[in-house]
Amino acid sequence: MFVTGALSGEPISVGDEVSIRDSDQETVTTVESVELHSRPGKTTIMLGADLRSIVAAGTLVQRWD
């Protein structure tokens, strides 16, 4: 599953753990791929397909520190 959005903070890398938050749950997963050549100001990352039911427009993906 590919997710595109604005990246803030430190650069993200393959293997980084990120949390995905929606209104009622938080899931931690690993970044599988990063594409930096998407629309201006946007970054695309690949996450596991099993997250498809969680990620929707407006979902926050944040690096897990």
Could you characterize the architecture of this molecule?
It is a single chain. The protein is mainly beta and 65 residues long. Helices cover 0% and strands 38% of the residues. The protein contains no helices and six strands. The protein has strands spanning 2-5, 17-21, 26-30, 33-35, 43-46, 60-63. The strands form two sheets. Strands 1-5-4 form a three-stranded antiparallel β-sheet, with no helix packed on it. A three-stranded antiparallel β-sheet has the order 3-2-6, with no helix packed on it. The termini are far apart. The model has no long low-confidence stretch (mean pLDDT 77).
- Largest beta sheet: strand ordering: 1-5-4
From the alpha-carbon coordinates, what is the Rg to the nearest angstrom? 11 Å
Termini Cα gap: 22 Å
Succession of helices and strands: EEEEEE
What is the number of helices? Answer: 0
Q: Helix/strand/pairing class, anyone?
A: mainly beta
Task: Give keywords.
65 residues, mainly beta, 3-stranded antiparallel sheet, 0% helix
